Every structure is written in C-alpha cells, then in structure tokens.
Structures
1.
Amino acid sequence: MSENAETGFTDALKRRIDPPVAIAFGCIVVMLFLGSLYSRSFLSPEYLLQQLKVASFLGVIATGTMIVILLGQIDLSIPWVVAVGGMMSTAATGWGPVGHAIAIPFGVACGVALGLVNGFGVAYLRIPSMIITLAVNAVAQGLMVVHTGGFSPQDSSSPAMRTLATGELFFGLPNALIVWAVVGAGAIFLLNRTTFGRAVYGIGNRERAAYLSGIDTQRVVLIAFALAGGLSAFGGVLLAGYASKAAQAMGDAYLLPAIAAVVLGGASILGGRGSYLGTVAGVILITLLQSILSVVQMPEAGRQITYGIVIVAMLLLYGRESRAR
Amino acid sequence: MSDWRYVLAQSRGTLLAIVFFVVMFVIYTSNHPAGFSANVVQTAANKGVLLALVAMAQTFVVITAGIDLSVGAVFVLTNCLASWILVGTAATATLGVLGVLLSGLACGAINGLIVIYGRLQPIVATIASGAVFFGLALLLRPVPGGDVYGPLADALTGRIFGVLPASLVALGAVVLVVWIPYSRSAIGRAAYAVGSSESAAYMSGVPVDAAKFCAYMLSGLTAALGGLFLTFVTYSGEASAANGNTYTLFSIAAVVLGGVSLFGGSGSAIGAIFGALMFRTIGDLLFVFNFDPLWQPLFQGLVLLAAVCVGSARLFQVRNRLELFP
C-alpha cells in the first residue's frame, strides 16, 4: 500500500518535472560552476542579482515571445516593437507632467497597437506570421525613423521608468526583477489557470481541432499577438529606463535571444508544448552565457561562435523533433 | 491536349512578380532625371543582383518548407573570405573564387546536417548557425578592409558592349547553370515533393533527406555567389551584423513577393529574383519622386505590408470556413 503511494509520488514528480527544464537548470548550475573556477565572484550574491536584473529585460520580452511560440507562430517584429516602446515612452515624457504620468502606459499601448496589427494579419487575413511580423517590423522602423529624424531621440526617460528599471526595493532586490516576477506570475496564471491559456495550448497543437471544439481561435490568436506586442514594448520601456534614454537599434539585440531562450526552455517551435518555468531557465541561461563570455573578455567573434555552438549543442541534447513518419 | 493552363497556374506567382517589377521599373526610369540610360540600369542592376542572389539562396530552402535564417550570415562570411583570398594574379583569384564557393557549400552542408540529422527545426538551427558564421566573419575581418582582384570585379560589375549590365548577364548565367537544371532534375522535383508533403513524399519513395541536404547546400552556394558579388561591388570585406540581418529579412520578403509559398512546395527562384528586383525598385522609387529620404523606410515598409497582405493572405483563397484552420 505504502509502496504504491511511494511509486505514485515519484511518478507524479516525474510527470511534473519536464526533462528539458531540468536539463536547462542543470546547465545553469554547470555554467555557474565553470564561472566560479575562473573567478570567485561568480557565486557572490551581488553578481547573481546583477545577472537576474539584466535577465529581467529579456525575461519580460521572452514572455510575449513564448505565448506566440506556444501558438505555433513566431514574432519577428520584436526589434522595432521594443524600440517603439522605448521611444514612445520617452517621447511622452517630453510632454510635461501629464506625459510623465502616462509615459509607461503610452509606450506599452503603442506596442499593443502593433501587436494587434500582427494578430489581425495572422488570425483574420491568414498571413504567415513570419511575413506579417516582418512587415510590421519594417513599418515600425519606418515610423520611428520619421519620428526621430534618424537620430537617437533627445528625450530622456521619466523618473518612474528609471525607478522601475534601476531602483531597488529592499535588501538590494532590484525592481526590474520584481517586475519580471509579476509578469511571470501573470503569465503562469494566464497559461495554466484560464480558458485563454488552455486555448493557446490547444491552438498550438492543432488549430482546426481547437476551432471545432468551440474555441474562438481567431480572437485568441489576436489577443496573444497583442499581448506579445505589449510585453515587447514594455521591455523597451524598461530598457529605456535602464539606459535613461531610447536609441535607434535598441531592440536588435533581443530578437534572437528571446526566441533562443524560449526554445532552450523546452518549448516546441511548432507550438503547443512548453512551460513558463522552462522560459525562465532559458532566459537565465542566455544571460549567464552572455555574461560569462564577456567576463572572460572573449572577443566579439569568439562570443558569437560560442553562442551559436552552445545553442545548437543544447538543442541537440533535448530539443530534437521525433521522427514523424 | 495541351497543359498550358496548368503551367500558367503553376507559375502565376512568378509571372505576377515579373509584371509588377516591369511596371515599377518603368515608373522608376521614366521619372529618373537621367532617364532610361545604361548608367541608371547598371547601378540598379548591381544593387538588385546582390539581393536577387540571396533571395535565390532562400528559395531553395523555402521550397522544401524550411527556412534559412543564416543566408545573410553566409553572405557576409563569404564576402569577408573573398576579400582575403580573391587577390593577386588571375590564377590565384580563380582559386579564390573556388575557395569562396566551397566555403559557401560547406556552410550549407552544416545547416543541412543540423536540420536533417540533428532533427532541429530549421528556423532555430539556422539562427544559431548564423551566429557561428557571423562570428567567423568577424574573425576574418574585425575591421572592414581587404581587396579584390580588380579586372574580374570590373568585368562583372561593368557593362558588356557598353549597354548590357554584366551583373544581369552573370545572374542569368547562374539561373541557367544552377536553377534550370536543378528544378528539372529528379532531386529538384523531390525538393518540391518534400515541401508539399514530407510524409507523402517519403511514402512515395522520394529521397527526402537527400533532397533537403541538396537544397541547403545549394542555398549556401548561392549565398556565397552573393557574397562574392558584394566583394566585387564594394572592393572590400566587412563583417557587418546589420548587413547580414537586413539581407536575411529582405530575402524572405523578396521570396514572398516573388510568389514562393513559405509553406513549401511551390514557386521558383526566377520569381524570387524578380521579387528581389522589385523590392529594390520600391526602395529607389522614393528618390526619383524627391521624397524626404527620412520617409523611405516607412514607405518601403508600408509597400511590403500591402504586398504581403494581398500576396500571401490565405483569406482570399479559402472556399470553406474550415480551410481557414490548418
């Protein structure tokens, strides 16, 4: 009897722990260990907190990316939606006291608007997501070039943005990390405890089946893309707060890491499979990898090569598709 | 009796791309201050051929229902390599050309191996391999520079008989030597079959893995041709991340404008080439209309958005509501 309960418990544990997520967290530990061989400070709380703070920006952006990837779609508009978020929020700051107050919501709203265009194209016009998001990225870039005149905007970020991105609440806990925790908790709730979340997984597995089960799949896709746009822009707002101003290509460095983080976390790029915990692991993994490569002062060329090889190697470990024949 | 209707239906996308390009190019040249002169055509051709070659590289993989996000990186890597080894005498330059093409093939082979035998999704695998290729390019050219064998570069970017742009002739030669034989060969048909339905192709005894591998190799080779041509145009090598990304993204846009389906199994490299030329002409149109250059990216983006809405929206092709949901 008790034996049964025992095996039942380990089975339940096995079912709860996703192998890719476990491997990803294992890789984080290995990476920290290798780093600590190079320098003791890799295990210091200050360093770890600093890494988590840097990771939160990617984490917020990757949250949106993950929802879209769970649908079996992809969002290539991240670079300029991030820039729109940063630039529009700093532009709003330039409008005076009212602008200060609405800077953050305004930046996020602009991202949601672009996300709605993406979602409308994918859900209702049935344009492949890779194409429509690429086009929206180009339009967003065009809008920002016209807005800024091709230079980095002069407006600086509002105090609220700066506090959110660089401040500390207590015990040296960075605000950015708390923001990511809140966003992450929201995402976990949304994906696991709401009909919307279950619909996202359902559509990712097979949209036709989800539609025939009575889900308004088009509306779910539209909302998911709007969420992704909003989160990308929010990431841009945080980045603008961190650097205290927005810049032209501020989002370019976030497209590939965001996708890589989600995929390294065990989510299938074909959709329908993946957990938020995996994305958290992926984000930390990517940030740590970038940090270690820069700490050991590897030149940019070596960094790119290592980065690519590590991603391929890790995916070969656990991200392989099964032979579908 | 005659199957011209099927042929026409098959190449609808290609023909549309050609028509759109011709219309745009006529508008462009008729408003250009210098008019339809050999010089204008030569400049436009040199710029267009670069993107056309990269778009062609993308086509090979897209036909098999894959995607190659490393074409831009291969393009930049081969450019950097060419700026090292394409120098000296005619003999060493010839060897250099061979070396560059071989390295392109090797890049394609690596992508193919990861995708086919590693069983990773092409979109993720080529993102990662693209980072590696770009890193190698940075190793070769930490700062822009280098040289190229002048006579060859001048011959390929100049004009033949003073009128015909040599770059267009070279592009035509690539199509004749690479695309036409490939698309008519068994392995080329196999690529289309794999793109239409991989499992059906497998069941019919089509060499699925060989077809995919060949597509990735040819993609690497054509991207290397693009990199070679970039070296001829710029006389130097530069490991520019922006350049690589732009060409990757533009190649996808050009492929779609050229009527190649991203779901695989239909379209042709000729369509993609005209898609690329069209995309370049869109960018140039603003200059002849004396618009503020600031508005150029927005205009280009809006045209791209409009083109993809009309071109690839499946909404206008469904006959049954259930067809909306794949």
2.
Amino acid sequence: MDLIASLGLGFSVAFDPVNILYCFLGVLLGTLVGVLPGIGPTATIAMLLPITFTLPAETALIMLAGIYYGAQYGGSTTAILINLPGESSAAVTAIDGYQMARNGRAGPALAAAALGSFFAGTVAAFLLAAFAPPLARAALNFGAPEYFSLIVLGLLVSIALAHGSILKALAMIVLGLLLGMVGQDIYTGTPRFTFGVRELFGGLNFVAVAVGVFGIAEILRNLENETEREVGVKRVTNLWLTREDFRRIVGPVLRGTGLGSILGVLPGGGHILSSFASYSTEKRLSQTPREFGKGAIEGVAGPESANNAAAQTSFIPLLTLGIPAHPVMALMVGAFILQGITPGPNVINEQPTLFWGVIASMWIGNLMLVILNLPLIGLWVKMLTIPYRVLFPAIVVFACIGTFSINQNVFDIYAIAFFGIVGYLLIRFGCEPAPLLLGFVLGPLLEEHLRRAMIISRGDPAIFVTRPISATLLALALAAILVAVLPNIRRKREEVFVEEA
Amino acid sequence: MAINASRNDLASGGIFVAFGAYFALEALRYEFGTPFRMGPGFMPVVLGSVLVALGIAIVLKGLGKADEGTSPPIPWRGITLVLGTVVFFAAAIRGLGFIPVVAISAFAAALASRNNNWLSAAVIAAGLCVLCLVVFVVGLGLLVPLVGPWLRF
C-alpha cells in the first residue's frame, strides 16, 4: 500500500464520529493536565488505561495519544502565565515566556507557542507516517539478539539523558528490571518473588506501579512544601502576532521542528532534551542573544515547536519496534497489551486501521488544540485558579478507583500505596522515577530475548557482537554511556539542566 | 546528626542494597541454569548483585561530601493520611461499597493538606462523591455495590 492510500484509510478511521469525539476528549484532558502543575500526562494516562479497556483499540489509542501531545500544549500555558512548567518539557518555555507575560505580551507568547506547536505537530506526524513503515519492515528481520541489544541501547540512552547522578539512574533502571521479573517465569512457570500471593503470579500491575511512582509520590512531594500559586495574568488580551513577531519566529519554529523530530526518536526523554537543545541553538544563532531571558519570542517558539515535534516522533520506536522511548510510551505498551495487541513491527500490517488511524488523528488533534488553546485561553486561566488542596484528593480517589476497575483486584490498590512511599523516598533522595518505569516495562522483554538469544547461540555470548546489527546497536549503547560519563560533556549536561531548576 | 556525608546518597544507596539483596537472595532458591539454558534464577541473581554493587557505589560516593542546602521537612501528616487513605480504600471497597468509601477517602485525603479544614474537606468529599458517581458508575458502568454488605442490615 502506498502512503496516500494508507493515509486515506487512516483519515477514514480518524473521521469516524466516535473517534473524533474521543480524540477531542483526549486533547481536552491533555490540555487540562498539562495546564495544571502537579499532575502530568503519565499519571493521567495510567489512571485512564483501565477505562480504555472497554473501547475499540483505535479509539483507545487515539484518545491516549491525544492526552500526551495535548499536555505539551497545555504545559506551555502554565509556563508562560505563572512561571511554573505544567509539564516538564515546558520548563524552558518559562524562561522567556514568563518575561513576555510580565511585559504585557502574554498573548503573543501563547500564540507563538501554539502556532509553533501546531506546525511542528503537523510536520512530525507526516515524518511518522513516512518513516515508520520502512523502519518496521527493517525491524521484521530482527531476531532475539538484535532486540536484546536494542533494549540495552534504549535503557542506556535514557541514562545519558536523565539528569542527576548517573549511578542513581542506573540503579533505578536495574531496580525497575527486577520489579519487572516478579511473577511466573515464562519458560518454566516457576513463581518468582510472589510471597505466595496469588495476585502476583501474573506480575506486578503496571498501572499500580505507574500511579504509585508518578501520582502518589508526586502528591507526597508537593505536600512537603505547600504554597498556593498565584496567577499573575488574570486576563489575556490581544493574541495577535505582529508582522515583526512572525518574521522572528519562522526560523526558530523550523529549526525546533527539525531538532525535535530527530531527538524525539531517542529513548529516554528526548522531548525534554529537544526543548533545551532548541533554546540553546536559538540563543547562539540570535543576533541579539542578550534579549534571551528577558522575553525573546524566539525562546518560546523554538522550544515549544521542538517538544511537540518530539512528542509525535517518539511514537516511532513504539509503533515500529515495540520499544517505548519514555514512560508515557511505556503506558502505551500497556494500552496495546490490554487490547490484546503486541506492539512491534507487525502492528502496521496486522492492524493497519489502528496504525494509520492514530497517525491521521494527530493532525485532527493538533488542529483541535490550536482552537482549544487560543480562543479558549480564558478557560484555562480559570483552571489555574483551582487550588491544589482541592485537586490532590481527587487524584488520590481517582487513582484508587481507576486501578481497582482494571480487574476488580484489591491487591493492586495496596501496591499503589507501597510504590507511592518507595517512589517518594527515592525521589526525595535524588533519584529520577522515569528510568525505573522504563526498566519495569522492558525487564520481561530483556530477559526473554536474552534467554532466547543464548539458546540460539548454544550459550555463546559472542552472538551479540558477531551479528552486525546487534553489534552496531551495542556500540551505540557503549558510546551513549561514554558520552554521559566523559567529564567535558558531563559538565555541559549539568549546565543545561541547571536552567531547569 | 553532624555526619560528613550526603544523607541522600546514604539513604538511596541503602534502599538499593536492600532491594538488590532481597531479589538476589530470594532468586538463589530458584534454578540458576547455565548460560545456554538460563533458569528462572539467572537474571534476578545477576541483576540483584549488580543493584547491590550500585547501591554500595552510591554510598561510597556520598561519603565525605554533605548535601547542599537542607531538604524540606518530611510531611508526616500528609504521608500518613494519603497512604492511609489508599490502604483504607483497598480494605473497605468490597465491604462498605462505593459511596461511603469514596466519601471517607476524599475527606481523609483532603485533610492531608494543612490548607484544608474539616469544613472544606467535607465539601471536597461531597463534590468528589457526586463526580465519581457520574464518571465511574453512570458514565463508565463500573460494577461495584453503591452501599456494601457491611452496611446492610
């Protein structure tokens, strides 16, 4: 099937009234959780996963994807108006966006962010449509050794991109891998680490781990230091960009889209990295670098385009290889599995309506987001005034009901409490939670492919370096970890992340 | 405590050592196998040992350099109430039924914030009860008794 025909199929799925409705619900919810600090797309998608079980696969994935890229739009609103990133990737936007708002230019800042995101989302969805099929075809030739090396690469790159201590990130991944091994062994059926609890034979519930580590732990973290936020700008007027503004954002949007599209494919938080990369690029290229930090519109348009482009292209490794690039994509794996579909290179052939429908829905969703975020901005400003003390009890209760409803299993709710406290302690002691979740999802895959590869090679580990693709992937993984520990680059990496604090 | 070490590193390293040791020791009871045919114990023993080693490395790295700044106080009230709520929800959902459990959970969770008082917590609980009924029971058709067997006479 050629691209045009496939996209035609995709649009026929995406334009189905039910799918349009759920796409709208997804981007609406995404904007909402993006706007509200303290609740992000990871916790939201985790809580909504059980609900999507009752929907058809296309509809479920269209909605969940909408939540994710919708949050990228919403996050910028909060960053610009109250100098708090509603979503981690919007941290850079706050630097210049908030200054613009203080200078009375909140409207143009919001418009630049939304239009940049729209352009980037449209282009990146096209790249996804163009590059995913050939990649998936290549991936069909992958055997167990290649998959093993690919997972190792994904895990190690995510360390290189995580901020904070590399040792701690590595330890979080290993802990995640181990937690992923709870349950019956796939080859022998031996129950492992189950304490004799019947509910654990099928493994720890993914939603319970995600909700505990991302939802509950985050609430406990926020309760450490309770301050109600203030909205500096009560009303946003004049959303129009001047001709001069337009001239200034064209370059940053184009470069941001390019950077974001490439970095988004990388495992482990490429969307956060891409907004930093775009910001520093624009600052370097600018003829007036002094304006950066004081309200330069380029510093809003570039990073916002980059993070939205990255949000869309981060679907590529998931849809072609079945390897999630970051925790939200790991949740998407959970959504696929709930629907009885194994994510990977076969999805494109076996579920063409799903694959193309999700891609086509991204254009529709991005269009809806521009409408939601510009004319309706007043609504979101109002949302920002909902106090956290009202919000977090709702998150706690939703988390419990949502997790319970997956398989009416009380044990999963106790698991939320356990992972909530463990997650809180680890975050408090300076460990990032994202690598843990990535390890948890990839753990069973890693073990399965390692064991299969060793059976193929009759116990000879050389199989990983004698097969060219596998060897290349491992070499890249080694390069990633070397890059992360080299002192020179390490200092740069810390500099980049200092701005976020 | 005036120790010249990063408490964050000591504590997180300790957690990793504890988890790693548990997984590795427990996995020793499973069949280890050979590299050719790995048993169920192979990966957990290897990864558990790696985690212990990483935990020790984190502790050693933290020795001799104290944390910069002080961390905020541990929110004991918040931790107790939020985790207590989750555990209560698990223990009571089957017995008490949807409405009483959601109301009590929302009330207790709201009190975890110092910015809420009894009255505001009660308002939040009532509001959430209605919202959850509409979303989960009416909207999504969740099958739970609204009032559980413990409350029927």
3.
Amino acid sequence: MTAAATTAGDVSVAAPVRAKRGRRWTARVVEISALVVVLGVLVVTLVGPWLAPGDPDRVDVANAFLSPGTAGHLLGTDAEGRDVLSRVLTGGRETVLSTLLVITFAALVGTAVGLAAAAGPRWLDELLMRICDVFLSVPSLVLALGVAAVLGPSLSSAVIALAVTWWPGYARLVRSVVRDTLQLEYVAAARVLGVSRTRLVRRHLLPSVGDTLLVQTTVDVAAIILVISGLSFIGVGAQVPSAEWGAMVADGRSYVVTAWWIVVVPGLAIAITAIAAQLLGDSLRVRLDPTLRNRR
Amino acid sequence: MTGTVQAPAGRAGDPLLELRGLTVDLPGPDEELRRVVHGLDLTVAVGERVALVGESGSGKSVSAAAVLQLMPEAELGGSVRLNGRELLGMPGKQLRRLRGAEVGMIFQDPLTALDPVIRVVDQVAEVLIVHGTRKKAAMEEARAVLDRLGVLARLPRGDGYPHELSGGMRQRVGIAMAVVAGPKLLLADEPTTALDVRVQEQVLTLLDDLTRERGTAVLLITHDLGIVAGFSERVAVMREGALVETADVDTLFAAPSSDYTAQLLATVPRIDAVLPDQTSDQTGVPQ
C-alpha cells in the first residue's frame, strides 16, 4: 500500500468514529429519558392515588369545563367537573396494571408452551403450534369484542381477551430461540457430559430466552397499552365513568373543540408511556444483542 | 440400577470400547434412512490412544456420536460395548450416568461448545454435580483441573465467562469438562481443527499429558494425519462408512497397506519429508 493510500484510509476511518460518537450521545439521552419516563409511570401507578390533589371521581357540576391553570385544578376539569390531573394520576393504575397483567400472562404461558414445543417430542411441537395458529388467526380486537359480548364489557374482559390472544406470539418466539439454541454445540456438550433433560432446559435453554423475552415484553407494553386504551375508548374495556386513560379520552371526545384538555391530557399520558416503553425496548434490544451493539 | 456400575478399572491392554459391526442409518433430506456407517469394527484398549481418520463425510464423527447415542434421529445397529456392557438399547437414564463419568467428549468448535451465559468454573463443575458430587467439592475439583490446564490464571479474578477467553483457552475448558469426572475413555472429535497451528500443538500436548497422567484412553477423530503421528499409538482409517485399515502408527506411516491410506498420507505436508531436491533443514518450519 502506498503512503497516500494509507493517509486516505486513516481519514475515512476517523470521520465515522466521530459521527458515531455523536449518535451515541443522543442515543444515550433518548435511552435515559425513556427509562426515566417508564420508571416515572410505574411510580405513578403505585402511588398515583396519593399524589392526586383531589378525589378523581368527585362530581362538581358547578365547576365543569374549567380550563387548565385554574387554581385547585391544574389541568382543568371535565364535563362533570372532575379534576383532570387527579384522574390522569389515578387512571394510570388501571391501564398500566392491566397491561402488566396481560404481558405477564402472555410471557409465562408463551414461554412454557414454546419451551415444551421446542424441547419436547415432535408430535407435541406440532400440536402446540397448531393451537397457536388457531389463536393467532383471531384478531385480538375482534376476540375482545366477542369476550365483551359474553362476559359484559369491562376492563377484565379486555384483559382476558388480550391475554388469550397475546401468548401465541411469545410461544412462537421462545420456540424459535430455543430451537436455535438446541442446535448449538454447547447443548450437545452438556448432554454428552450427562446433563439431564430438565436441567438442560433450566440451566442452558431458559437463560438464552431471557434477553429476547425482556426486549419483546418492553416493546409489547407499548402495543398493549394502546390496545387496552383503544378498547376502553370504543367502550369494550374500562367503562366510562371510571378513571382509565382510554375511557377518559372516550368520555371527553364530544368536547374536543371546546374543552381540548379533557381528551389531550389522558391522550398524552397514553402516547408518552407507549413511546417511552417502545424506545426503552428498542435500546434494550440493541444493548442485549451483541451483533447490533457496535452498529449504533 | 445396582448402585454404581463402575466396572473394575481394567489393566492396560484389556478392551475398553468395542465396536462390532456398528451400523448407523441417518434420515436424509427425503426422510428416508441412509446407511452412513457400514458395519464398523473397532477396539480401544484401556489407556490406549487410537486415531480414527478419514476425509469429511467418511462417517468417523457419526461413529463416535453413536457410542454415546447423541443422535436421536439415527438408527443404530451392531454392538457397542464399554467395559463389556452393551450400550445399544441401554435405558436412557443409565446411559446418562455413563456420559461424562465414564466417557467424556471434546468438541470441535470451542467457540460454540461452551454456554455463553454460565461461568467457566460452574460449567466444568456442572459435569461433576450432575453425577452426584456436592457443589463445593465440585467447584474445588473444577478449579483444580482448570488450574492444571493453565486456564485459571487467564480468568479475571479466577472467575469469568467463556467470552473472556481465547479460542485455545476455551478448548482447554472443553477438555476440562470432558476429563473432570474422570472418564476412562475420551472421544475427541476434531479437537484442534478450529484452532491455529501453534495453539493446536499446545492443546494437543496438554491433552496428551493429561490423559497419560490419568491413564485415559482416547479415540481421536480427525482428518489431519499430521497430528496423528505424535499422539496416537494405533490408527484406523475410514472411508465411506467402512474401515479401510487399522495399523500401528509407525506401520501405517511407513507402509500403508491400502491405496487409499497411501493417498491420504500423500496429502499431508510433513516436516520430515525429504523431497528429491530438498534437504530437511530447508523446510523453514521451526521445531
């Protein structure tokens, strides 16, 4: 290689490094803010009712449609004069808790089914995967409408419907990860040195699923929050007087033009939580995947 | 099961592993069984080192995997005896106790043969733990073996994960896992193929010393005749699933009885080869 070529090479190498550092800095800011928001939402979920300045369900028709900034009602009041700030702070509880419920159920059942399908005999794999196909073929929103029709519209109907339709995705995911892992030599090495099947699953297969599962759940949190809020909005989930973000949006939609805050405040809460969870999931994905780690 | 089935240690020269008419049928892409090993006869004596050589696809690895029945999809026939006990048709539980404790195995690729999320010491100790050793004693024993193999000193804080080690060091961990439970027989499936030449030599030397110390018999599976000469006493040559010839290392290298072996030998770049127009000190290979 000539001297000129070497110099040119050095320059072209140096430039991307600097660009990368810049991107890494912004990525870090996004990552940390996402984490802070998600943690903040979780804290509000836990202690929200105590943070709320007033009773979220106290009707005060004389003070309806107060705009944000009014003394005593920082974010205004809704059509029945209920304090919007108090309602948003309490409403997070139902949305977030039902999301976590759905995720936990889906992840646990999905992991169990996926593991059994991947590590078990072939007929079991076929059986479980066909069952997954059946559930995957029903759109969760449609099923939620069906469940609501049978059990009556309520937040628990929405949670049941979502949990029932969400686990097959996890089963598929876990099955594919475990199948890949089973091909690796270290699994063969463990078997050849006398490790039993159950120990193999527990010690060598489950840990390999952990990363993928963590990422998938954080990303799914966003989706489920949106679906639950959506269901509440169309009246299948949480019912209107209750302080739940989706229901609050539904409640205020007739007054969007005159009293925007009734819709915008819970809407923002949904959007910010979903976006933060999505961003957090994304950065976790990059962090935990060694092949992506250097590509940022 | 009658307690521990650990057979009497056996004197050098007694047969340890006996393959008689071993056949292996594997399902092909069309799910139809295809015979890949046609009646293999092979004996490894107590403490003996036998090399099983042959080109890729000659059935040597499959034969070794058949000893421990590692391929659930394969149909095995013939007889595999270890210390006189028939392994084919042995119940899974009994077979599992045998794996690791009486027969150890070393794999080709040290990068994938270790679980990336389990600490190296734990991984070695696990072999002992699954065979009933208490955790504390197992950890001590694992450390001792890793120390003997020179791995412990390379681990940060004497602890750490496989990715913190080089390829050669990881293969030593693989050796440690294979020998830690004190097996009488070691199956080494291309243990040095994935390593560079200098590291190959170190790893082979260590394997050699360690198995001599412990009197472990080794079945070395390789396509590299270059490493066979210094390591094993006897060589079995396989081709297309059948044995071509078995001979002492010296006999085989000096006067191969089959054309195929002669061809194989001709492919090996040899340090001591004296070519017509060249003297040995010009080969440029440092001793």
